[in-house]
Structure prediction request, 107 residues.
Amino acid sequence: MDCIFCKITSGVIPTKLIAESEHAVAFNDISPRQPVHILVVPKEHYTDVADLTEKNPSALADLMALATKVAREKTLGSFRLTFNTGAGAGQTVFHAHAHITSTAVRD
Ligand code: AMP
Ligand code: ZN
Prediction:
């Protein structure tokens, strides 16, 4: 298994999860670029959000529900939800993931 996020979702790389749903997990980005920087990742492997949308829309809906819940809990209500899609757009890990970023942390 070469995919770093498959290693995280399967527990091969132990990672502290912030939250989990049926189809997705949320954990802190290893290299945060904002005070809040959380990744929300489907448990199954899809290359990017377009692939996830086409192949498993119910898992996408579940991921979005988890991302919304975590964003509301960890920010003051304003946040960005970003899916870099394709190397030209800055995607470096080719397992679909949403970035939740915010300048404001809810303590
Ligand atoms: P992207 O550039 O959109 O593909 O985002 C990949 C993100 O994954 C980057 O923000 C990295 O900092 C993050 N990342 C890479 N490896 C890990 C890891 N082991 N645990 C948490 N975040 C990671
Ligand atoms: Zn993967």
